[in-house]
Amino acid sequence: MSGDESGPGTARSRHTGRRPGNADTRTAILDAARARFAGAGFDKTSIRAVAADAEVDPALVHHYFGTKQQLFAAAVEFPVDPELFLRAIDAAPLDQLGVALVRGAVTVWDSPAGPGVVATVRRMLAGEPNLVRSFLLQVVLERVRTRIATDEDDGRWRVSLVATQMMGILIARKVLELEPLASMPLPAVVAAVGPTVQRYLTGDIDQSVD
Amino acid sequence: MSGDESGPGTARSRHTGRRPGNADTRTAILDAARARFAGAGFDKTSIRAVAADAEVDPALVHHYFGTKQQLFAAAVEFPVDPELFLRAIDAAPLDQLGVALVRGAVTVWDSPAGPGVVATVRRMLAGEPNLVRSFLLQVVLERVRTRIATDEDDGRWRVSLVATQMMGILIARKVLELEPLASMPLPAVVAAVGPTVQRYLTGDIDQSVD
């Protein structure tokens, strides 16, 4: 390895576990983050703990990677910032949330970033389901849950049902490439699956069916 | 490595092409079946072709493994005979098919055979999605499709939607172990998800929702 690829103004001298180059420091932070997120989950991992594991200052972690959520995305090599997707969810009216979730997610999966997302999810499913669970429960679904929670219903069962349907679309459309689903245009997928997700979010899900 | 761990009565003489022992013949048949099913899919794989690849008589394949479907199950190390599940599907009235599918599948996944099913699906998703696709489309979903097909609608889009929901439950409940879904008793899962699957099978799925 060439030990120093630092550009002008980016050289940093480190000691004890010396990491002279940016690339090495970044790698150390990402390794530490991946281990923490996999072991403790998203919520219980702090930037401070990751920084300590990587033997760097917490400010440097923020400087390189931004928020904890962005650090997570970088650690699992997620090719898009989940925040962009989540803002669209925040903006959708409650009675359109199902459609917004399906449209938003499938749009990302069908985009040029899609293969990277799919590869990340497949890799995590095969080797680190903890990371998928943590990301889903504590980042994505939590953000949706706060939209639907009421005094009588905290929404946890509802968002886990949403997760089944969204995860299933991802697997069937992008991993298995099941036809005709894999080639079905976005509006048809949204029309078919949006009502399912909306019912899970705000509809009657406890009624016995037989 | 110690080259010979054969116990009494298991010694086998091996040479080019000859397969004198049951275990070796079975292994050769399963290897050939796995390669054929992965390459050509379930429909286009014949017992005759598998037998030819394994250099045995087709009757021997039937003798060891039964039907093509049972050979498939053995080749992917599926721990239950899918036929048992599929017969329950055949027996359900059309307006109860959604509930029957969810109840039947989740019952198998929650059973002692469940971990084996989950391990098989995870392995195939990671390495051989062709095998999952082929099994789903040509065995399970085809059997469901013939129940719902009409002159106007061949049911292919409908059963691919069913596949998304069922696959998603499997992944979220048994691989990710997302709570509260993972601990939710079977009747609650059936009550929540049965109507989704029933709508995909026989309901209105083309109506635009916005």
Automatic annotation (TrEMBL), chains A, B:
- Whether DNA-binding counts among this entry's keywords is yes
Residue ranges of region Disordered? Answer: 1-24
Q: Which domain of life is it from?
A: Bacteria
Keyword Transmembrane helix among record annotations: no
Q: What is this protein called?
A: TetR family transcriptional regulator
Keywords, alphabetical: DNA-binding
Q: Where is the HTH tetR-type domain?
A: 23-83
Q: Which GO terms describe its molecular function?
A: DNA-binding transcription factor activity; transcription cis-regulatory region binding
Which residue ranges carry the DNA-binding annotation? 46-65
InterPro entries attached here? Answer: Homeodomain-like_sf (IPR009057), HTH-type_TetR-like_transc_reg (IPR050109), HTH_TetR (IPR001647), Tet_transcr_reg_TetR-rel_C_sf (IPR036271), TetR_C_16 (IPR041678)
Which Pfam families does the entry link to?
TetR_C_16, TetR_N
